[in-house]
Amino acid sequence: TDTFKVRKDAHSSHLSSPQHLEILSLKANIKQRVVTEATPIGRIYDEEVAKAQLNQTALSIVASVQDAKSPLNRIRRLETPLLPKSCRFDIPTLYNHTINVERFLLYDKMRRNKRILIFATDDQL
């Protein structure tokens, strides 16, 4: 394919190497999972690198899990809702169910400016 990487500095445009494209795809997959899953970042990273089946050249270019954790944690924090400053707030539907779509928010009641929230799966009861 005619995939070009265009740079705006003094270097001319050039074809992206297959390894570079594989790494870009890997990074996109990791970022997507970090944003949408609560799985530990190290596990996501290891699973995606294994799934990508990168060759030795690409593996030598890709960042280590330790180098990737900090920026990935930052991405995850930006997607996490801020802690509420009062007990009057809506709980996003994302937190009402588990990843397996089991109910997770069992009880949500407000009494005299105090709120009781109980989170658990039916198996945990």
**Helical coverage, percent range:** 40-55%
Structural class: alpha+beta
Q: What letter string, H or E per element, gives the SSE order?
A: EEHHHHEE
Count structural domains.
2
Q: What's the pLDDT, averaged over the residues?
A: 84
> So what's the overall shape?
elongated
> How many runs of DSSP E, i.e. beta strands?
4
Cα-atom radius of gyration: 21 Å
Cα separation of the termini: 55 Å
Give the helix tally. 4
Low-confidence stretches: 1-7
In which order are the strands of the major sheet placed?
Answer: 1-2
Main sheet summary: 2 strands, antiparallel
Approximate strand percentage = 5-15%
Secondary-structure map with pairings?
Layout: E1 4-5, E2 14-15, H1 18-36, H2 41-52, H3 56-61, H4 65-79, E3 105-111, E4 114-119
Helix pairs in contact: 1-2, 2-4
Report what the structure shows:
By secondary structure, this protein is of the alpha+beta class. The chain has two domains: 4-79, no CATH class; 93-124, no CATH class. Helix content is 42%, strand content 14%. The chain contains four helices and four strands. The protein has helices spanning 18-36, 41-52, 56-61, 65-79, and strands spanning 4-5, 14-15, 105-111, 114-119. A two-stranded antiparallel ribbon has the order 1-2. Helix 1 packs antiparallel against helix 2 and helix 2 packs across helix 4 (65-79). The protein is elongated. The chain starts with a strand and ends in a 6-residue tail after the last strand. 6% of the residues are buried. Residues 1-7 have low confidence and may be disordered.
